[in-house]
Design a protein that fits this description.
Layout (H helix, E strand, L loop, with lengths): L1 H37 L3 H5 L13 H7 L3 H31 L7 H13 L4 H10 L17 H12 L3 H9 L4 H12 L1 H17 L2 H6 L8 H15 L12 H33 L5
Helix pairs in contact: 1-13, 3-13, 4-7, 4-10, 4-12, 10-13, 12-13
Length: 290
């Protein structure tokens, strides 16, 4: 029986590794194809076919994208809205989650019901636009920050994490004269780094990749994030079939698109490994049911 169990376990490990390897290949190969194609010349891309290694290595696609000086301003907007948005979102959701984690909170069930409703229903695009206009958020940098302050999904993760922290720590802090804000900022937040890192990564990816907010509410090009700016470059290159900026190059609209994908993905690829350890821990600890 023991040998049978061992053999069964080995077979399971072999199948499991094969499946994981297959999934990795399915994910990695298309990404590598995009990177290799982005470093290929326009003529090579026009030939078509799968590109496993750059054909006629060229950086002209990247030059075409980066030649526009306004792209750097767009990067500043994207970095600013991502950093400010993540800090504001994490802090606001943490405050709400900390309050809802207290079972003796008056009206807790009502607040919870209101939060759950936001998971399934929204006001719709047109009513939301009218609300943004009434709040003077059209062509306003804060349109990137204020509407995304709250996410009940993130609140649930943080709330379940807070409930696992020992109540005795808060009680001892209260005996020492600490108030609610001091307990929250000095005790709860420092102990919640895994959960905070999880939420920060979730929202950071959202803020960096967010395209529709700028598309719907921003017409001032000064406030364009990098995704909107790169979209503008792709459209201009495709429609006009003209060089981007003042440099004449042999590029194709496909090459420009591939280069933009790589440029917008690199920051997230750099940030994820730095937060991966806390991310996994936060997901596991925050997954305990209420």
């Amino acid at each position: 029986m023991k040998k049978a169990n061992i053999n069964e376990s080995k077979r399971f490990d072999i199948v499991n590794r094969f499946v994981l390897l297959l999934i990795a290949v399915i994910i990695v190969v298309p990404i590598w194809n995009i990177v290799a194609s982005s470093f290929s010349s326009g003529k090579a891309l026009a030939e078509g076919g799968f590109v496993f290694w750059p054909k006629k290595f060229s950086i002209e696609n990247y030059k075409a994208v980066m030649n526009d000086s306004s792209i750097w301003k767009a990067y500043i907007i994207s970095v600013s809205k991502t950093v400010i948005g993540v800090v504001a979102h994490v802090f606001f959701c943490s405050m709400v989650a900390y309050g809802l984690s207290k079972r003796d909170l008056m009206g807790r069930k009502v607040y919870t019901a209101m939060g759950v409703i936001t998971l399934f229903f929204s006001g719709g695009m047109i009513p939301t636009y009218l609300l943004m206009r009434q709040l003077n958020l059209i062509n306003n940098f804060m349109v990137y920050i204020i509407p995304s302050l709250f996410s009940y999904y993130d609140v649930v993760i943080l709330m379940n994490f807070f409930r696992q922290l020992p109540v005795s720590m808060e009680e001892s802090a209260k005996i020492d004269g600490a108030g609610a804000w001091r307990i929250f900022l000095k005790i709860i937040m420092p102990l919640s780094k895994p959960a905070i890192a999880t939420i920060a990564l979730f929202h950071g990816v959202y803020q960096w990749n967010d395209f529709m907010t700028a598309k719907l509410y921003i017409t001032d090009k000064v406030l364009y994030p990098v995704q909107m700016k790169l979209y503008e470059i792709i459209v201009r290159q495709s429609v006009q079939n003209m060089p981007v900026g003042s440099v004449v190059m042999e590029t194709t609209s496909k090459g420009i698109q591939l280069a933009t994908i790589v440029i917008t993905t690199v920051p997230i690829l750099i940030a994820y490994p730095l937060l991966q350890k806390h991310f996994v821990t936060g997901m596991m600890l925050g997954a305990v049911k209420e």
